[in-house]
Structures are given as structure tokens and as C-alpha cells.
Specification:
Structural class: alpha+beta
Distance between the termini: 11 Å
Oligomer: single chain
Low-confidence stretches: 261-268
Mean pLDDT: 93
Number of strands: 15
Order of helices and strands: EHEEEHEEEEHEEEEHEEE
Strand order of the largest sheet: 9-10-11-8-12-15-14-13
Largest sheet: 8 strands, mixed
Radius of gyration: 18 Å
Strand content: 35-45%
Helix content: 10-25%
Number of helices: 4
Amino acid sequence: MSGPYRPGTPCWIDLMVPDQQAAIDFYCDLFGWQGEVGPPEFGGYAVCSLKGQPVAGIMKAMNPDGSTPDPMPPSVWTTYLSTADTDATIKAGTAAGGKTIMPGHDVGDLGRMAVLADPTGAVFGLWQPREFQGAGIVNENGAVTWNELATGDTDKAGAYYRAILPVDTAPTEIPGAEGYTEFKVNDRAVGGMMGLDQHPEGTPPHWLTYFLVDDADSTQAAAVRAGGNVLAPAFDMPVGRMAVLQDPQGAVFAVIKTKDAPQDPDPA
């Protein structure tokens, strides 16, 4: 990525966990990232990189005053959608039936963020870029390649996101993926949406992060060796082969080897 993300496009992901260093070690080993605990003024927030470009954040779960939460919140990956105006999007989100989990606030000179929940209960972040645009590499092995909303009401969720950001929703045209919805920005698919009826009973609404890999089966095996769990063993689907995994602290993510994924892509 060499420029800003269009509003409505997933632009960043981060993970909140009890043991930050253990998470950094797990994902750096799994995806070939580099990362370390960040400066105290940003709460130790770690910006992990791939080929010298930022790809994901990892932070220690803590209260605003720096104390340890009790009870500890679940370990989750959060998808951030780019916005031109965080506060206006928050206002639109409230009007559209959503909730504000974390009000808008500046992150130094890097940008302005917030965390919201859509009317169906799925939590996501907003990022208004200033000095920091978001992920510097996407759609390469070890980087994010897709973000997907699972919800109990796709019509209500679709209407909400269309109301707060310049996105459209449309049924996918991919053969074999009937019933799947795409989020589009300027007629380009930037994310997906599916019903919870295709998930195990009791699964809450959520945004799922997909990482591109060169071999879904070997990545699954590596995650298990490192203490992770397999929620959906590697399987073939219309666009490639994927698996849904859980890291040792419980955060869920997906890996996918797409049918047209390049091997060892040239970042230039």
C-alpha cells in the first residue's frame, strides 16, 4: 500500500491479549513477522511488521489507567475500517442503531480511532488516518488478505454499514459461494459477510481476519505445534483452501491459500 485506504475499507487489525509477548512470539513465528513491545507512551502497543512494513498490532489487555482488567476480556482480533471522520461516523453509527464501545480519541499524531458495535453485536474499529495509514502490506503471504463479518442478521448489518460509511453490499458472483455478500467500495470488493447459520451454534457475531499463506495445511500444523487450536480443519472452498484457527490465548483467525495467490511475491 502506497497511499491512504478509501473510507469503508478495512485498513488495520490488532489483537488484545493477556500475555502480549507470548502473542508476539506466536504470530512472528507463524507468519514471519518482526515485532517487539512498543514504547510506554502508547501502552506498549506493538506494531508488527513484514518486509519492513506494518501489518498488525498486538497489545496487552489493560484498563485505561494501566491496571489489569478483572475479569479479563476475551482475546480477539479487531478489524478497523478506514473513515474520513471518526466522530461523524460514530454519530451515524448511533443513529443507525449501533453502540459506541470506545469513544473517538487521538492516537498521538498517527490518527483518530474508536471502537463500535453494529446493531447485531459485531465489534469493529474505526481509523481516521493522519501520519499512519494502516497496513503497509496486504494480500501477500503472512499479511491480511480478507476481513469477514459473521452476523445473525445480514440485512440489518448491511443497512448499518451502508449508513455509516461509503460502502455498498452485493451478492457475490463467485461460483459456488451463493448466499455470500460482499462489501464494496467504489465497486471493488473489500470484505465479506455471511450468516451465523453457517457457524457452530452459539457463535457470537464477529469480524474474522484472514491471513494469506502459501500452505493452509502446514500453517495449521505449525499453529498446533505452537499451542494453538483448530476450529475448522483445512478445507477446500470456491476461492482456495482455508482453515480457522485459535491462538494459544483464544483469539480466532483464519488462514487461506487462494487459488491465484502468488508464490514469494515481489514487494516491488
